[in-house]
Amino acid sequence: MAARRSRFRKLTKLDLAFLLILGGVAGRLLLLRVANVETVLAVSMLAGALLGWRHALLVSISVMGITDGVIYAMGLGDPFGFLPILGITAFTWSGMLFVGLIGAVSGRRRVLFTTRSMAALTMISIPATILYDVWTAFGEWMFLAAPRGVPIEVVYFMQIPFTLVHLASSIVFVPLFGSIFSWLSPAPEYLPLPEASEGEPSRP
Amino acid sequence: MFLTERARAILFTAAVVVIATSLILAAQAFQPRPPTLLGGITLSLVIEGPGWTITHQNNDTVNNTVFLFLLEAARTRHFTLEWENYSPPLSAVFIIAINGARNGDAHQYWQFWVNSVYGPTAADLAVLRGGETVLWKFDVSEEG
User: Using alpha carbons only, how large is chain B's radius of gyration in Å?
Assistant: First the structure.
C-alpha cells in the first residue's frame, strides 16, 4: 500500500521561508502596540531549526527589514533621531540573526512534529530570548539612555518586566508556530528496504 | 511513566499557558505603582512649548505620577492634552500633544525631566514622592 501523504507536506524550504517571513511580518505589525509580544524571534529561531542557518539569515533580515521599514515610514522612530535608530537597528538585527543561528544549531537533530521537539525548541527559546534582550537593552542604553545620563543598571532594571513579557511571548509563539511549520516541513524521505532474497543468510 | 502523544501535547499546552500567564503577572507586578496617598504632596510643573510656557504648582495634590499631575495641570490651566495608551500586559501612556504642540512638528517631541533627571519611563509609570519639579520640554531629539 502506498504511503499516504498530504500535499501540504510537500512545501519546499523556500516556501516555508516565505511563510515564516509572512508570519514574522504580520505578527510584528499586528502586535506593534503590545510591548514585547512579537513573532519575529519565533520565526527566526524556527527558520534556523527547520531550514538551516542560511534560511535563518534570510528570514531574520527580511522580517526585520520589512517591518522596520514600515515602522519608520509610519514615523514611529522619529523621536530618537537618525543615528540612534541606526545604532539600535544594528543591535536588533544582529540579535535576531544570533537567535536564528541558535535555532540552526539546535535544529541539527531533526525537528519533528512531536511534543518532545516542540518542548525542546521552547526550552531553547528561553535563553535565546534572554540573550536577545540583554543585547538589545545594551544597544538602547548606548544610543538612547546614556546620552541622556541614564545609567546602564537603570536600563537593565527597567528591562525586567519587558523581558518577562518577551519570555511569555516566546514560549507561546515558538511551540505554536513550531507545530504549524514542523507539520508543513517536508517529511523525511525513507529509502525502500531491499527485497528479501532467498537462500542462506550470509555469515561473517 | 508512559504517556500517549496526545496526553503529552495536552500537558505541554497546559504548562505553556500556566508559565506564560505567570510571567505576565510577574511582569505586571514589577511595574512601578504609585502609592495611595493619605494626604497631599507638593509638586511643581513647568511646560516649555514652542514660544510659550505654562507653570503649575500644587501644595496638596494626590496626583502622584508625572502623567496624573500633567492631567491635573491641563484641567486647572485649561490646555489640551493628547496621549496614546499602549495595550496590556505592559500598559503605558505616551504624550502626543500638549496645548496644540504635537509630536513631530518641526521634528520636535515632548520629553520630561524630574528634578533635572531625564524620565526614562512612560509618564504614567514615573512615580512622584513630593517636592519634585517636573519639566516637560518640546524639543528636538538630543542626538537628532
Answer: 21
